Amino acid sequence: MLAREPEEAPMDYGVLMFATEYAIAPDELARALEERGFESLWLPEHTHIPASRESPWPGGGDLPREYWSTYDPFVALTAAAAATRRLKLGTGICLVIERDPIITAKEVASLDRLSGGRVLFGIGGGWNAEEMAHHGTRFKTRWRLLRERVLAMKEIWTKREPEFHGEFVNFDRMWADPKPLQQPHPPVIVGGDGATTFDRVVELGDGWMPILRPKRPNPVERIPELRERLRRAGRDPKSAPVSLCFAPPERRALDALAAAGVERAIFGVPSEPRDAVLPRLDAYAAVMRA
Question: Half-sphere exposure of residue 164, counting CA atoms within 13 Å on the CB side?
Fold first, then answer.
């Protein structure tokens, strides 16, 4: 495993939860995280789940209820922003392939402004082909679509009169404010761990966010490959920090992740009420401080 250099900063810690009506509210969760010293809150999204249930869930088994019960992440993160002052606010992940890029650029910029520049824009392509199809997205072209939509949003965030003309996204010169508070824009953190993921990280990303899954190859082992890809592209090899979703809440394991180059460990909490979630946060915070 690749050793961390002495000057590197300590690892950050975040929490991911599917925010739903039957779980602890996003604002209360955010306050609890900030009080306990966590760096970030991450909220996933699914607009819906087609009842056909044709696409298999990557987690295996029956699909949990929270997948079709999530709040819109930008609405929920706005509530979290209003309840906190320092906590960073992440989409984990935003399904760009199901979203209009002009509207999404507006939502990201608005949240970044209203939160004082605390947005972490996690993006991905998703796994549910039928869900995408309901949004008019073809599964086979989703990565080309994602690329254009992200590039178009970057134009909107950084140009006074942006325009974009591509295969999937087309708009003439426009006026679109506010611009994000973070410059040139909030970090774009690319989710996933597929064969072409690093293509997107190198071209579009300010970070990489894979998921640690049981009985699957450990994505952490690919960090040297990512750094080499960045180097070959003329980028700083550490210009795309690694955030690991569902990191194990155990000190020895976290130390090993830090030594391998993981810069943010994201713990998962279930979509449950406060009485079930808060003790888990206390346990995570104790490991974090150990």
Answer: 23
d(CA 101, CA 118): 20
- Per residue in 214-225, pLDDT (tens digit) is 888 999 999 999
Q: Is the link from the previous residue into 184 a cis peptide, with omega within 30 of 0?
A: yes
Tell me the pairing of strands 262-268 and 242-245: parallel
Give the DSSP per-residue string, 228-279. Answer: HHHHHTTS-TTSS-EEEET----HHHHHHHHHHTEEEEEEE--S--HHHHHH
Instruction: Write the CA distances from 95 to 126, 139, 198, integer angstroms.
Output: 6, 13, 18
Q: Using DSSP bridges, classify how beta strands 188-191 and 119-124 pair: parallel, antiparallel or unpaired.
A: parallel
Longest dimension (CA), the chain: 54
pLDDT, one tens digit per residue, over 121-167 is 999 999 999 999 999 999 999 999 999 999 999 999 999 999 999 99
pTM attached to this predicted model: 0.95
